[in-house]
Amino acid sequence: MNDAEYPKAVLVRGVPGGGKSQLTDILRQKLGARVEVLDPDAVDQDSGEYRAFVETQTREGVDPKLHLYRWSRARAYAAIEAHKIIIWNQAFTNLEIFRKMIDRLETHAAACGTKLPILVVEVEVDPQTARQRVAERVNRGGHTVSEEAFARIFNDYKSFVDEGLTVVKVDGRADINSSVTTVLDAIQTM
C-alpha cells in the first residue's frame, strides 16, 4: 500500500476468547510498520507515559473507567495524523457508543484534511470455545475475564452487519491464515 491509501481503521470486535488478539497480531505483522495497534487489555498501565496520561485525565476530572478508552482514542488520533492503519481490538458490544467513537475518529480525520475508511471485523465463536481459550490464556499468565463480564458480553454481543457499516465476519475457530487473508483482502478494497 502507498501513502495515499492511509489512514484506515480496522475495528476488530468480538467476545473474549474469540481470537481477536491472535488475528490482530498477525495482521500487524503482515501490514508492517504503518500500523498502530490499540488494545485496552494490552496497555502497560505501569509505563511512565500511561501514568502521566492518567494524571492529566484525573486532573481534568475524567472518570477513571474512561482512562483506557481515552488513551486508545488519543493514540488513534495520533495514528490518523501519521497516516497509519489503526487496528483497534476490543469487544465493542454497545452500538451507540461504537458509533460515537467512529464519529469522533472520522471528525478528527476530517480536521486533519483526510478521510478515514473504517472496516469492522467481527470474530465469531461459540461460548464453550471462548471459555476454554480464556482459561488457557489465564494458565499462560494472561488476563482473565470474570464470569459476570463474560456472560454480559456474550448476552450483549450482536452483529453490526445490518447497521450501515462495512463489516467482514470471520469464524474464530477457522484457520487463522484464512481469516487473515479475508481481512487483508477487505483492507485492500477500503
Which features characterize this protein?
Rossmann fold, alpha/beta, 5 strands, about 50% helix, about 190 residues, five-stranded parallel sheet
- Order of strands across the main sheet: 2-3-1-4-5
Stated plainly, the CATH topology is called: Rossmann fold
Alpha plus pi helix count: 7
Determine the CATH superfamily: P-loop containing nucleotide triphosphate hydrolases
Order of helices and strands: EHEHHEHEHHEH
Radius of gyration: 16 Å
CATH class designation = Alpha Beta
What would your notes on this structure say?
It is a single chain. By secondary structure, the chain is α/β, with parallel strands linked by helices. Strands 2-3-1-4-5 form a five-stranded parallel sheet, sandwiched between helices. The chain is 48% helix and 15% strand. The model has no long low-confidence stretch (mean pLDDT 93). The chain has one domain: P-loop containing nucleotide triphosphate hydrolases (Rossmann fold, 3-Layer(aba) Sandwich). It starts with 7 loop residues before the first strand and ends with a helix. The chain is built from seven helices and five strands; from the N terminus they run βαβααβαβααβα.
Question: What is the fold's blueprint, element by element?
Answer:
Elements (H helix, E strand, L loop, with lengths): L7 E7 L5 H12 L3 E4 L9 H12 L7 H15 L3 E5 L5 H17 L6 E7 L2 H13 L7 H10 L10 E5 L4 H13 L2
Parallel strand pairs: 1-3, 1-4, 2-3, 4-5
Helix pairs in contact: 1-7, 3-4
